[in-house]
Amino acid sequence: MNAKRLYIFLTIISFGLMTGRCSAQGTPPPAVTLDLHQVSYNDFLQALEKQTGFRFFYDTADFDTTRIDVNVQAQPLFSVLNNFFSGTGISWSADRFRHVFIAKGEAINTGLPQGFFDKADSGRLAIGDTVRDYLEEVGKIAVATIENKLYVIGDKANGSLPGKINLAGYTLDAATGEPIVGASIYVENPRIGVSSDQYGYYSISLPRGRHVLNIQSIGMRDTRRLIMVYGDGKMNIELHTQVMTLKKVIVSAEKASNIKGTAMGVQKIDIRTIKQVPVVFGEADVLRVVTMLPGVQTVGESSTGLNVRGGSTDQNLVLFNDATIYNSAHFFGFFSAFNPEVVKDVELFKSSVPARYGGRLSSVLDINGRDGNKRNFAGSAGIGLLTSRLNIEGPIVKDKTSFIVGGRTTYADWLLQDLPAQYKNSRASFYDVNLTISHEINKRNNLYLTGYLSEDHFNLNNDTTYAYGNRSLNLKWKHIFSNKWNSVMSAGYDRYQYSIGSTQNPVNAFNLGFNINQLYFRANFNYYLSASHTIEFGLNTLRYKLHPGFYVPVGGKSLVVPDSLQAEQAQESALYLSDHYTVTNAFSIDAGLRWSLFNYLGPSVVNNYAPGLPLTVQTQTGTTPYGSGSNIKTYGGPEYRLSLRYVLTENFSLKAGYNTARQYIHMLSNTTAMAPTDIWKLSDPNIKPQYGDQISLGAYHNFKSNTIETSVEVYYKRIHDYLDYRSGAQLIMNPHIETDVLETHGKAYGVELLIKKLTGKLNGWVSYTYSRILLQQNNPNEGPLINEGKWYPADYDKPNDATVVANYRFNHRFSVSANATYSTGRPITLPIGVYYYAGSLRTLYADRNAYRIPDYFRTDFSMNIEGNHKVHQRTHNSWTVGVYNLTGRHNPYSVYYVSENGLVNGYKLSIFGSAIPFVNYNIRF
Amino acid sequence: MSSRIRNLTIFLSISLVCVLLCDCVQTYVSPYKSPPTGYLVAEGYISANTPTQYSLTRVIGLPGDSSIPVVTGAIVQVEGSDSSVYALPEQGNGIYGDTTLLINRALQYRLRIHTPNGEDYLSDFVQVRVTPPIDSVNWIYSPNNGVNIYVNTHDPNNATHYYRWTYDQTWQYNSGEISTYIYDPVSNTVSARQPGQFVYTCWKDVPSTTVTLGNTSKLSQDIVYEYPLVNIPNNSWEISILYSIQVTQYALTAGGYQYLTQLLTNTESLGSVFDIQPTQLTGNIHCLNDPGEPVIGYISAGTIQQQRIFISYNQMPYWDYEISCYAADHLVPNAPDSLRDYFEYGGFTPIVKTVGGYTGNATRCVDCRSLGGSTNKPSYWPN
Q1: Which of B223, B267, B297 sits opposite A559 (nearest CB)?
Q2: Which tens digits make up the pLDDT trace of A18-27?
Q3: Which residues does chain A have within 8 Å of residue B35's beta carbon, measured at their own beta carbons?
Q4: In chain A, which residue's Cα lies nearest the Cα of B59?
Q5: What pLDDT, on the 0 to 100 scale, is given for residue A458?
Q6: Which of A388, A844, A910 to mutate: most B Cβ within 10 Å?
Q7: Which residue of A281, A550, A896 is the best one to mutate when testing the B interface, meaning the one whose CB has the most B CBs within 10 A?
Q8: Which helix (H) or strand (E) holds A506?
Q9: Does the beta-carbon distance from B43 to A898 stay under 8 Å?
Q10: Nearest residue in A to B209, CA atom
C-alpha cells in the first residue's frame, strides 16, 4: 500500500482518465454474484476478495464516503470492476498473480516499461515512455458527464487548507462539442455563481470541500455535478440538449439570471426562439425578432434598421462574430443579413453596455455564430419562397478542429415580375456566405477564423443599378493563462461598400462608389481575482479608411468627369477596465471605465469656416492641407459604465445603471428607412463626435419558481451632437458635407415592461414600451433652426409599443406560434398647404414630423411541424406553415402626397397589404 | 424527396400570386386640418428675349380642391443692379407684365412686389443666364414603350450646366363619327352644320405639369444628350393624326436649380421605400415685413430658347388608336319632343339626317370637344 508513495512508471495509453486495464492472462477471472445495499467501497472490495480469491491493493483514502448498492449476478470480475469504477476517477489493473491494484487517477502499470532492465544502469527511460508524477495531474481535464458521480478536484492533501480554490473549464454540448455560451454555473450554499463566456469558458471560486455544482443553460437540460474540491482544477462540463417537452416540468429555483445579474437592458435570444417566431416569407429572421423586444423599434416593415431606446439606426454596433456590419439588410430590408442557420444566439445590450464595447451610442447587438460540429458531419437546408439556404458543418480533426460553412441566395426576381407594371423592370438579388473554422490547439489555446460576405444587387423601375455588400474576415485567439485568467485577442478586417451605376444614357453613364474599410485589433483579458471580484480589461484599436465617394465614367462615350472625394482615415482606440464586484450576496456592482481616443488623420484638406458662424459655403474661409499620417484632430474622453444590483428577496431585485458613450462615425441620411445609399462620415474638425449618456432603473420579479420573469425598466437618455440633415441636403458626392448637416441634441425617455416565460408548453413574452425621442436644434450659430428651435420628434418616435410573442408546444412534433404587435404611427412631415407652380398643384411643407401616420397593428401565426424524431435516420425534416399579417391590415409604411397630372393626391403606402401565407421546408442531415 | 419539393414550390407560387394582387397603395385623406397660411407664390421668369411675366397666387389648405386665389392690385417691378426699374403692369387674373424688357445681360436683376395688403416682397439679385439654343428635339419609337421624346443641347462655352425644360404638347384628333347636323336648344331644331361648326377634328393643348431639370456639372463638356422629356404610350391618342411638342429651355443658376430640385423631390418623387423626406423650401424672395414668412418661388433671369417638332401618325411603324366608342347610332324622330329628349342636355348629338329624323349618338363619340380639345386650329399647325 506504499505504492502511492513511489514514483510509478506509467504508460499513457489513453487520453481519458477513466481507464480500466487488465493485464491478467491465463485463467479467466471468476464470476461474481453480489447483492449489497449501501455499502462503502471498502466493504464492496472485501466482499469481492472473499468471492474471487483475488488480492486487492488500495488506499481507503482514495474513496470518498459514497455508499453504493451492488447487485450483480454471475458477472466476470473485470466487468464488475469496470462498471463500478468507470467515471469515478478510480482506475484498476490486475496482474497475473491475481493481484488487483486500485488507485486514484491512472491505472497502475503492472509491468515494467519495455527495455527497463537493459537501461537500468543508465537510469534512463526509452524515448516514448512517459514518466508521470502521480501527484501532479497536469494538462488533463476531467470531462464530467455524469450527474451522480463525485468528481474530485485537486490533491486531497491540501483539503484542510483554508481559503478558496478555483475551478474552471468549458461548458460543451455533449452532442457536438460546441461551447455553450452563457450557461449559468452555481452552487447553492454558499451562493456563488458565474456564467460561461462567449467561448463557453467558466471560472468559479469555491471554498474547499464538497459541492453540488448546478449548470443551466437555455435550451439545455439542467444538470448538476457532485464535486469534491481540494485545490485548483479544471473540469469541462458537457450538457445535453433539451429534447422538447417532458411530461413533468422540472422547476428550478435558479433560473434567475435576470434577478441576479447586474446588467440591465440586456436581452438574449437563442436561435431556437428566433425560429419559432413567424416572420414574413417564413424565413427565421434574427433582426426582426429583435425588433419585437421592448425598447427596439424600426421605422417600418421593410426596415431592419433598429432604433434602440430612441437611438438612431447608426447608433447600434452590430457585431456578427466580432465583425462590424454596417448594413444589416438584404432585399430592401425584407431580410436581415444573417443566415439563421449559422447563428447561435443574439444578445442586445441597450443600457448596460460592457466596457469592452464602444463606439456607438445606443446599443450593441452581438450576433454569435455557431461553431461547427466537432464530432460529426451535419448539415441543413431550407427552401423558402424567396430564398434557399444550406449549411454544412463537421470536424476537420475530430474534437479539435471544426468548420461550418453556410450560404444563402435568393431567386426572387420572379416575385418582382408579378408586381404592377411600374415595377416590372425591377430586379433584386442577394446572397451571403459564412465560414467559421474553430481549432483547439490545446486545452489552453483556441483559434477561430471567421469570414462573412454579403452582396445585394437591385434596380427599381429604371436602369440605375444599386449594389452593396459587407465583407469581413477575422482571426481570434483565446488563451487561458490559468484558471483565473484568460485572454481573447482578435484581429480582423471589415468592409462595407456600395455602388450605384447607370449606363442607359451613354453620355451620362456613370458609376458611383462608396466604401468603409476598417482594420482592427482587440485584446480582452478576464481575471477572476476572487469570488467577489472579476476584472476585465483590454484595449481596442481600429483603423478607418473611408472612401466617401468616387464618381467615374462608364464606357467610351461617357463625358462624366471622374471625381473623387478625398479619402478619410482615422484611428479609434480605447482602453478599458471593469470590475464585477460582489459586495455582499445581495449587492453587487459592475463598474467600468473606458477611455476612448479618436485621431482624424491625414492626408486631408480640411475646410475652414469662420468661427461662431453656421457652416455654409459662404462662411468657408479656406482650406488647410495636412500631410499623410499627420494627426489633424483628436477627440476622446472617458466613458463610464456602471450598474448596481440589489437583491431584495430570492426572486426580486432592483438595479440601476449609468452609461456614457462616444461615437465617432456617423451615418448621414435624409431618408426615413436606412437606405443602401446612406453615407457614413467620420468625425473631423468640422463634425464633432456624438456623445450620449443614459440613466436607467429597473425592478425584476420572478414568479412561479422563476419560470415567469417580469421586469420594469425606466430610462432617461441625452444625446449631444447628433447629426440631422439640413433642408435640401446634398449628401452624395458633397465635398463640404458639413454644410448640409446640423448638430442637434436629443432626449429620450421611456418605460419598458416585460413578462417573459421561456419554458413550458406555453412560452413567449409580452412587452409594452412607452418611449419618446425628441430632438432640438435651437442654436442659430449652428445653422437654420429646425421647427423654430422647438423640440421635435425623431422619425422613429413611436410612443406606445406593445408586443406579444407566444408559442405553444402541443407535443414534440407540433407547435404553434403567434405574435401581435401594436405601435403608434411614426411621425411624418405632412403638407400644410397647396400651391400652384410649374404647371401643377404642389404641396408645401413646413415643420418636420409634426404629424403621424396611422397606427400599426399586425398579427402573425405559424405552425411548426417536425418530422419524426428517430435519431438514426438520414434526414430530419420540418415544415413551417404560417400567415404573416393574419388580419390583412393595410399597415401604412408611409403617407405621402404627390403631384400627378397637375393635381395633388395623397396616398398611403403599405408594404404588405394583405395576409401573406408562407411555407418553409427544412431538412437537416 | 425531390418531387415533394417540386410540388411545394408550385404550391407556393400559387399562394404568392394571391398576395401580390393586393392593393398596397391606397388613397389617403389626412385627418389633420392644415393651418391657414395664404403665403405668396410668385412664378415667372425675367426674360431677356421674350415678354417677362409673373403670376402671383397664394397657398391654400389641404387637400387643395378649392380654387387657387390670385393676387390682384399688386405693384410688381423688375429692378436692375443699375437702379433701372421696369414695371410689370397687371393683366388680370394675377398675371403681371406683357412686354419684353430691355435686360442688360451684364447686370443683375431682382423682383419687387407690393400687395394691396401692404406686404412688401423683394428678391435677391440674380444673374442673367444666357441659354444656349436647343440642338434638337428627337424621338424614338419602340413597340414596348411607345414614343419617347428627348431633348439635346450643348453649350460650347461650358458655362450653362443647369437646365430646365418646359414643354407644350398639342395634338390633333378626331371624334368617332362626323356630325354634319347641329342641334339648337333655343329653337329646338336640328340644322346642317356651317363651316366653323364642325366638331370632328380638335386640337388638345397640354402644358407640362412636371419639373424637368438637367445638370451637366459633372460632365467634361456641357452636353445634354437625349434627355427624356415625354413618353407617349403605344397606341395612345396623342399620335392618332398629328402631334406637336414645343420645348422651352431655360438656363438656371445653381441656386435656382437646387430650389427646383427640392421642389421636385418634395412634390413629385415621393412614394418609394427609401423616400427622401420632404423639407422646407427656401427661395430667393423674401417678405420684408416678416422675414420668417415663407414665400414660394425662385426668381431667375435669362434668355430662353424654344423648339417645336411634329410627329405624324404616318411616321409610326404600327400605331393602332381607336376611340373607345362602341354605341350604335340611334334614330331620333324629327319631332319636337324627341329632339328635346335626346339633345337638350348635350349628352347626345345629331349626326346625319335620315329617313324619319336624324341619327344621333353620345356626344363623346361625336363631338371632339368633349375630350378636352378645341376646334380652333393653332396658327402653327401645318395641315
Answers
A1: B223
A2: 333 333 344 5
A3: 832-833
A4: A835
A5: 85
A6: A844
A7: A896
A8: none
A9: no
A10: A839
**CA–CA separation, A438 and A478 (whole Å):** 11
3-state secondary structure A272-295: HHHHHCCCHHHCCCHHHHHCCCCC
What's the rounded Cα separation, in Å, for the pair B67 and B71? 13
Task: Please give the single-letter amino acid code of residue A500.
Answer: I
Distance CA B166, CA B250 (A): 8
CA B364 – CA B371 distance, rounded (Å): 7
Average pLDDT over residues A517-543: 93
ipTM score: 0.90
pLDDT at A732 over 80: yes
- Supply the pLDDT for residue B127: 94
pLDDT at A753: 94
pLDDT category of residue A221 using cuts at 50, 70 and 90:
confident
Of A506, A895, A919, the CB nearest to B8: A919
Measured in residues, chain A has a length of: 925
> Any idea which residue has 408611409 for its cell?
A894
Residue B180: what residue type? Answer: T
CB-based contact A838 B266, cutoff 8 Å: no
Question: For residue A245, is pLDDT > 60?
Answer: no
For residue B14, is pLDDT > 60?
no
Of B211, B268, B279, which has the smallest distance from its Cβ to A845's Cβ? Answer: B279
Residue A378 has pLDDT above 90, yes or no: no
Which residue in the set A561, A848, A912 is minimally distant from B218, CB to CB?
Answer: A561
Closest CA to A549 of A706, A396, A338, A735: A735
pLDDT at position A139 over 50: no
pLDDT (tens digit, 9 = 90+) per residue, A27-38?
A: 566 778 888 777
Closest listed residue to residue A651, CA positions, set A710, A594, A693, A602? A710
**HEC profile of A134-200:** CCCCCCCCEEECCCCCEEEECCHHHCCCCCEEEEEEEEEECCCCCECCCCEEEECCCCEEEECCCCC
Neighbour tally for A399: CB within 10 Å: 11
Quote the pLDDT of residue A65.
Answer: 65
Taking CA atoms, what residue in A is nearest to B152? A507
Given pLDDT bands bounded at 50, 70 and 90, which one contains residue B133?
very high
Q: Verify whether the Cβ–Cβ distance A843 to B64 is below 8 Å.
A: yes
Distance between start and end Cα atoms, chain B: 71
Residue B374: CB atoms within 10 Å: 12
Residue with cell 420628434: A793
